[in-house]
Structures are given as structure tokens and as C-alpha cells.
Write a structure and sequence with these properties.
Structural class of chain A: mainly alpha
Mean pLDDT of chain B: 86
Low-confidence stretches of chain B: 1-6, 8-54
CATH class of chain A: Mainly Alpha
Mean pLDDT of chain A: 88
Helix content of chain A: 55-70%
Number of helices of chain A: 13
Oligomer: heterodimer
CATH topology of one domain in chain B: D-Maltodextrin-Binding Protein, domain 2
CATH architecture of one domain in chain B: 3-Layer(aba) Sandwich
Number of strands of chain A: 0
Shape of chain A: flat
CATH architecture of chain A: Orthogonal Bundle
Distance between the termini of chain B: 64 Å
Largest sheet of chain B: 5 strands, mixed
Number of helices of chain B: 22
Largest sheet of chain A: none
CATH topology of chain A: MetI-like fold
Low-confidence stretches of chain A: 300-304
Helix content of chain B: 40-55%
CATH class of one domain in chain B: Alpha Beta
Radius of gyration of chain A: 25 Å
Number of domains of chain A: 1
Strand order of the largest sheet of chain B: 2-1-3-13-6
Shape of chain B: globular
Structural class of chain B: alpha/beta
CATH superfamily of chain A: MetI-like
Strand content of chain B: 5-15%
Order of helices and strands of chain A: HHHHHHHHHHHHH
Chain lengths: 318, 492
């Protein structure tokens, strides 16, 4: 590359520099550092550390603790993601539907989004107090006759998992609605009008127009939610004892990593090995999502993301 | 082009490796240089320090703790040394946040100078290379007759790195009115005879349960007896890199199960609303039936910090103050306590050392601390920005036998004695303190003990069998201690 060419493009490089530097320092360096640490027995409490090869990883698979954490994470994520995307799609369709003409859509959207503004710490503390043995939920349920005696909610695997799933769903579905609605409103209304003229019903329009054109948005929601879900930490950490109690049923990947990091000597080497495995697992899954949800006809033909119905309608319009 | 990309990438990798090396090994050189580093300034600055009066001290000191207690001393320290500024940071330790935060900060630019260390994790730090050698303060402990266990806990391999202002023998607090009603007497000596060992304690628990309409629990939770059981083990948790499950631990687990199954405990979790409510008779079960708790296992600090403040209901009902009495209970034990140490690499190590000396080894400060001199007005006169609730009430049990002997009689008519129906708690603690043993504390205690809570809770509520409980606990311990050898579970 000669100098004149570089000079011409230099403004561009200057504008790119902050991101590149930021990425190298805060993105690439931690990843490389974590990878390096995961092969050592480094601790926070002593300066010496040794290379121990795959020792940390071997230990992770020596008992079921790590695999249980992975299983917990997937379970908690899938069970909150499915209703989240389902409700978000349903409500978004209702809000953007030309026929229904729901009033004050902005207000509803804001109301659904509000839980997302609450601090996870506050939400977790609130639910912890509500469902305590001597807490208000027990008082209410027993006095109303739903329970014969007070129940140890937070010592029950089902209830505690249910609470985590509910809180995650409740705080995040509003955010998903906003993104999905933005995607839906960007679909040209003429397509729906044309479909109506052709006698398509609501389900057909959703299936043949909305879903295909929404695919990039759905992939985005899917992948960001997956990445967030695999790193689920604050709510399960704070809801019970910070160790994924009861019976480690809400002990997620990140809680396990944190426990290793926070244990007596601060075993950062062992904690890093968990981080590395989460990183690999999340990356593979995200790539998988991209692969399976890729636009299959878009590969050969240029005008992408359109089903035959849409194409026919476009022809009709033009 | 491609070659240059590779070149840049490989450079990056090398650079990040270097950064890694820098990032993880700051303590290594510090550890090897430590003796030299602490000796050198001591030699050069010592004459200056003795020539000039102490008021010459100046600088800014970063102090971290997990409660607001030491803030009171920090303000008093500033009163003594007006040129010193103490920046105080409080981080709670409910789920281990404080411990993690200090670990993560040590060795970085955000590292505090002085850290408070609780009994559960002080040994981790004393056994590490991260605390400064404070051996030259040890002669002061002889002058003050500091209880040996207190110094022992702060010492590892002959080097003392942390000191405490407290000694923390434990006790058994019970409600006089319930004792009279169910046991026929509220006299401390007679009640002590009824709970003198664990068999008698269980007999008494059955009497309390059968008494009246059955609305009495002997304790808030059986977990309160964990510390007494721990104190009576024959071996510490870790011996030669191997986890030891002492018979006392197994005994404790069976005891806790028995308490739960027989309804001798309220089922409240320690340090939660329900547990505190028992201290002021506002505990109600889900049906709204009032329940009463007969006794609490608490150490020295439990009286002024936990029991006394919680004896009045939040909505202003009748206080239980005056209805309490204190005896030794079935087992002697010690519980908790706060040590202070100086982090290696502190830029203000001399000032930090002075602060530790003031907090733990200063006769005047310890006397003021224990006798309630540090009122809110006193502190506000030094620092007007002091929060309104910052103060130190009389009654904390201090680590110096010299001070204890001088001030014990001053508690004969104090509010705390009134709280105990006229009993001088200070005198009782003074009798128990010299026999306390700190040799069983190890650096791994905190994590090992916390790992037991969840499996034990599952076992108590019947969702796990005993064998499953032991297995779950050992799995948890194994995952937090990669190097520890884990024995077979006691029950399979």
C-alpha cells in the first residue's frame, strides 16, 4: 500500500481506530488472557502459578457439577426464551395490526418494558423476601386456604427454577417486543394490503409475510438472548444463597465460574476454564443458529428474504 | 499482506502473554522482597517516628470493611491525627461479596491500605503473601495482655499479620419469662444446669415444646449451634491438604435434623426477618399464630449488635429487654470477630500500621470503644459529616485482658446489664475469654462451611437423603478447592 493511498484513506482509519483499540484492549485481550489462565493453577492469593495443561478441564468433567450447571443454564434459558419470543410475537402482531387498531400502543409498550429498568438486585431481593418461609406469600396462601401450612418455596427446586424463569421472562419480554415491533413496522404495509385484496387471512399473512421478512430480526433476538442466557447470573445468584441453592438447581455456568473465582484462594485458573468452555459452547451455538436460519434461496438469487407469495404480490403491485 | 497480518497477530499474542504475565504475578516479587521492604523503612524512619510526636502523621488511608463498626474508630483516629484522612469503604459480606472484592482489588491500583478480616476468612489472608508482616507490634500485645487466641489467629508460620480489637467467646441467651413458665426457674445457675450438655439441652428442648400451648420453640434455627459444634472438634477442616470430616460435624447434622423434625426450632433462616422477629416476640406463623423463641446462641458481639437492637419490635410494640439472661450453654465456643491487617504494597504502610495499632492495640481506644465514649456527638465533633446512626454503644468485648479487668465493674449498672435482668455480661465473658482456642481456624473454613448450607437445608426439609447430602457437599467442596483431597462421605 503506497503512502498517497493511505493518506487518502487515513481519515477513515482514524475513525476506525477507537473501536479497534477498544476491541483489542477490552475484547481480544481478556479472551486471550482467560485462555492462558485456564491452563494454569493461578490463584488470587498467591503470586506463583504453574502451567498444568488440561488439568482444569479434566477436573470439570471429573464430577457432574459442571455438566449440571450447563444443563441448568440451558433449561432456564429455553424455558424463559420460548414464552418470551412467543408473547412478544403475539403482542407485536396485535399492536401493529391494521385491523385491530389498538390505542395507546406506546403506553403499552412502555409498560411492558418497565420491568427491564428495575435493578436485578432489587428484583431478586424482593422475590426472596416475598417467598421466604415467614414471608407474605406464605401468609396469603395459608390464610386464603390454598396451602394447609407454610411452604419452603425457596428450598423447592421447581418453585425456585420457576421463579428465575418468570423473573427473566418478565424483565425481558418488553425489550423483545420493542425489537420485534420495530421489525414488523418496517415491513411495507402494501404487502399486507395486497394480501388482503387476495383474500389472505391473518395467519396466512403472519406466516407468509411477517415471519419471512422478520427473519433477520428474529436471528438477532435469538442470538443476543442466547448469549445473555448462557451468561445468566444476577437473578439466580441473588435469589437464594449465591451458590445456586436449592440443591444447585439454579447454579448456572456463570455462578459456577464465580464460585471458583470467589472461593478461599480465588482460583482464577479453574474459573477461567469454565469461562473458556462457555465461550466455545456459546460461539458454536450462535454459529449454528446463523447456519440453520440462513436464507436458503438468498444464496443463489439476489433479491433475498422473499417467499413466492411476496414475490407474486410485488409483481402485482408493480 | 497476509504475512504482515500474521506478523501483527503474533505480535499481539506475544504482547498479551506479556500482559498476562504482568497481570498475574504482582505478588511474587512482593513476597520475596517483603522482609527487605518492611525492614528497610522501619530502620530509616524509626528514629524520625520516635523523635516526633504521633500528631505528625499525615496522609490518606484507604480502609475497607464489611460493617460500619471500624468507621467509628477511623473517625476517632482522625480526631487524634487531624492531618490524616481516612477514606472508609463498607462492602457487605452476605454472600461473600466483600471477600471477593478485596481479593480482586489487592495488588491493583484500587487496593486498600487496611482491610478488616472476619474470623471466617481471616486465616486465608494470614496464610497468604498478601498481608504485611506486623511482627514488631507483637510486644504491645504483651503489655495489653491480649488474649492469646486473638494473636494466634492473626499469626501464621511465626509471623503475625493481623490484630483484633475483639475477643469473641460465645454464650447462650434465654428468655427469663419462658424459663419460669416451662422450666420452673429463671435463675441462671439452675438453667445452666438444665442445658449443661447436649443431652440435657435436648431434654430441655422437649420440655419447652410440651409447655403451654406448644407455641414455644427452643431456638430460632438449629444452625445457631453450628459454631459451638465446630469449636468442639478434635481436628480442623484441613489437615495436610486433606479435608477432615470430624465426628462433631456428623453429630451436628443429626442434631439439626432432630431439631427440625421434632419442631424444637422455628425454621427461620439465621439473619432473616423471621429469625430477628423471635427476639421481640413478633414471630407469627403463616396462620398468624404468635410463636415464641426461648433462646439464642450468640457471642459477645451478639448482645450489643444483634439481640439488644432487635429486642424492640419495629412497629413499636413491647420490648423484651430485661427478660433475658445469659449462661455458658451446653458447649464453650467462640464466634466471629474482626481482625485488621495491612495489605502488602500499600503506599502508606507506616500510617496503615499506626492505624492497626490504634484500632487493636491502644489501651485508650479500646477503653473508649468498650465503654461507650464514641457517641454520635463525639464523632460529629471530629467529623461533621458523620452519619446520624454512627456510634459505638458500650458493651463490645475487647481483646485486651488489661482493659477488660479495668472496666468490667463499670458494667454492673449499665443498660446491657439491665437488658439481662441485672446480670453483668462483661464479667461472664471475661471469665470465658481466656479459655477460647483459635487454633482450629484455617484459611479454607469459610468456603467449606458455606458449601454445607444448601445440602443441609435440603436434608432438613426432606428433599435429600443423608447420603445425598454428604455427596452434594463434598462435590461442592471439590469444585471450590482443586487441590484438596476429599475423603469418602461418612454415610453412603
Amino acid at each position: 500500500m503506497n503512502f498517497a493511498k493511505f493518506k487518502k484513506a487515513s481519515t477513515g482509519y482514524f475513525f476506525l481506530a477507537p473501536f479497534i483499540i477498544g476491541f483489542l484492549v477490552f475484547g481480544l485481550y481478556p479472551v486471550v488472557n482467560t485462555l492462558t489462565l485456564s491452563f494454569t493453577d493461578a490463584t488470587l492469593m498467591s503470586g506463583k502459578s504453574h502451567f498444568i495443561g488440561l488439568g482444569n478441564f479434566q477436573r470439570l468433567f471429573a464430577d457432574e457439577v459442571f455438566m449440571r450447571a450447563v444443563g441448568n443454564t440451558w433449561l432456564l434459558w429455553i424455558l424463559n426464551f420460548l414464552p418470551q419470543i412467543g408473547i412478544a410475537l403475539l403482542l407485536s402482531v396485535m399492536f401493529t395490526n391494521v385491523r385491530l387498531k389498538i390505542k395507546a400502543v406506546g403506553v403499552w409498550r412502555a409498560l411492558f418494558f418497565l420491568p427491564n429498568l428495575l435493578m436485578p438486585a432489587a428484583v431478586a431481593a424482593l422475590f426472596n423476601a416475598l417467598f421466604a418461609y415467614y414471608g407474605p406469600v406464605n401468609q396469603l396462601m395459608v390464610r386464603a386456604g390454598f396451602l394447609s401450612e407454610a411452604m419452603r418455596f425457596l428450598e423447592s427446586v421447581g418453585v425456585t427454577r420457576g421463579l428465575v424463569i418468570f423473573i427473566q421472562w418478565w424483565t425481558w419480554f418488553g425489550q423483545t417486543i420493542i425489537i420485534v415491533m420495530a421489525g414488523m413496522t418496517s415491513i411495507p404495509i402494501q404487502l399486507y394490503e395486497a394480501a388482503m385484496v387476495d383474500g389472505a387471512n391473518g395467519w396466512q399473512m403472519f406466516r407468509r409475510i411477517t415471519l419471512p421478512l422478520l427473519r433477520p430480526i428474529l436471528i438477532y433476538v435469538f442470538v443476543t438472548s442466547l448469549v445473555g442466557g448462557m451468561q445468566m447470573f444476577d437473578i439466580p445468584f441473588l435469589l437464594t444463597d449465591g451458590r445456586g441453592s436449592p440443591q444447585s438447581s439454579i447454579q448456572t455456568n456463570n455462578i459456577l465460574m464465580y464460585m471458583k473465582f470467589a472461593s478461599s484462594k480465588g482460583h482464577i485458573g479453574a474459573a477461567s476454564s469454565v469461562g473458556v468452555l462457555i465461550f466455545i459452547m456459546t460461539s458454536l451455538c450462535a454459529l449454528g443458529i446463523f447456519y440453520f436460519l440462513r436464507d436458503r434461496d438468498g444464496v443463489e438469487k439476489k433479491p433475498a428474504k422473499k417467499s413466492t407469495l411476496v414475490k407474486n404480490m410485488e409483481k402485482a403491485l408493480l | 499482506m497476509r504475512k504482515s497480518v500474521l506478523y501483527v497477530l503474533s505480535l499481539l499474542v506475544v504482547a498479551s502473554m506479556l500482559l498476562v504475565a504482568c497481570g498475574t504475578t504482582p505478588a511474587a516479587p512482593a513476597a520475596t522482597e517483603a522482609p527487605a521492604a518492611t525492614d528497610a523503612p522501619a530502620v530509616t524512619e524509626a528514629p524520625a517516628a520516635t523523635d516526633a510526636p504521633a500528631a505528625e502523621l499525615e496522609g490518606t488511608l484507604n480502609v475497607w470493611s464489611f460493617t460500619n463498626e471500624i468507621r467509628t474508630m477511623a473517625i476517632a483516629f482522625q480526631g487524634k491525627h487531624p492531618k490524616v484522612k481516612v477514606v472508609y469503604t463498607m462492602i457487605p459480606m452476605t454472600n461473600g461479596e466483600y471477600q471477593t472484592k478485596v481479593k480482586a482489588a489487592s495488588g491493583t491500583a484500587d487496593s486498600p491500605d487496611v482491610v478488616a478480616l472476619e474470623a471466617a476468612f481471616v486465616k486465608e489472608w494470614v496464610e497468604s503473601d498478601l498481608l504485611m508482616d506486623l511482627n514488631d507490634l507483637v510486644p504491645l500485645t504483651e503489655q495489653l495482655k491480649t488474649y492469646p487466641a486473638v494473636v494466634q489467629v492473626g499469626t501464621y508460620d511465626g509471623v503475625t499479620k493481623a490484630f483484633s480489637y475483639q475477643a469473641t467467646p460465645g454464650a447462650f441467651f434465654y428468655r427469663r419469662s419462658i424459663a419460669k413458665e416451662c422450666l420452673g426457674t429463671d435463675d441462671p445457675q439452675q438453667v445452666q444446669a438444665m442445658v449443661a450438655d447436649m443431652d440435657k439441652f435436648v431434654e430441655t428442648a422437649a420440655k419447652i415444646k410440651a409447655c403451654g400451648t406448644g407455641d414455644y420453640y427452643t431456638v430460632g434455627t438449629g444452625a445457631e449451634l453450628f459454631t459451638p459444634y465446630l469449636a468442639n472438634r478434635a481436628q480442623p477442616w484441613v489437615v495436610d491438604g486433606k479435608l477432615v470430616i470430624d465426628p462433631k460435624i456428623v453429630e451436628y447434622v443429626h442434631f439439626a435434623k432432630m431439631m427440625r423434625d421434632n419442631g424444637y426450632e422455628s425454621g427461620a433462616t439465621q439473619w432473616t426477618e423471621g429469625w430477628f422477629a423471635g427476639m421481640n416476640d413478633t414471630l407469627k406463623d403463616a396462620n398468624g399464630t404468635p410463636k415464641k423463641v426461648f433462646s439464642y446462641f450468640l457471642p459477645t458481639w451478639g448482645l450489643p449488635y444483634v439481640l439488644s437492637p432487635n429486642s424492640t419490635p419495629k412497629d413499636g410494640g413491647t420490648s423484651t429487654a430485661g427478660d433475658w439472661a445469659m449462661v455458658n450453654g451446653p458447649m464453650s465456643y467462640q464466634w466471629g470477630g474482626t481482625w485488621v491487617g495491612v495489605l502488602e504494597g500499600s503506599p502508606n504502610s507506616e500510617l496503615a500500621k499506626e492505624f492497626v495499632k490504634f484500632v487493636a492495640l491502644d489501651e485508650e481506644n479500646l477503653t473508649n470503644w468498650a465503654t461507650g465514649v464514641y457517641t454520635n456527638e463525639y464523632l460529629k465533633a471530629i467529623d461533621p459529616t458523620t452519619p446520624d446512626d454512627q456510634a459505638q454503644a458500650a458493651g463490645d468485648f475487647v481483646s485486651s485482658q488489661l482493659v477488660v479487668e479495668k472496666i468490667t465493674s463499670s458494667f454492673d449498672n449499665s443498660t446491657l446489664s439491665e437488658f439481662l435482668g441485672g446480670e453483668n455480661s462483661y464479667g461472664a465473658f471475661a471469665a470465658a475469654a481466656p479459655s477460647v482456642d483459635g487454633s482450629f481456624l484455617t484459611g479454607s473454613d469459610d468456603a467449606i462451611q458455606r458449601a454445607l448450607n444448601d445440602p443441609l437445608a435440603a436434608y432438613l426439609s426432606g428433599t435429600m437423603t443423608e447420603a445425598e447430602m454428604w455427596a452434594a457437599w463434598l462435590d461442592a467442596v471439590r469444585n471450590e478447592f482443586p487441590d484438596l483431597i476429599i475423603p469418602e462421605p461418612p454415610v453412603k
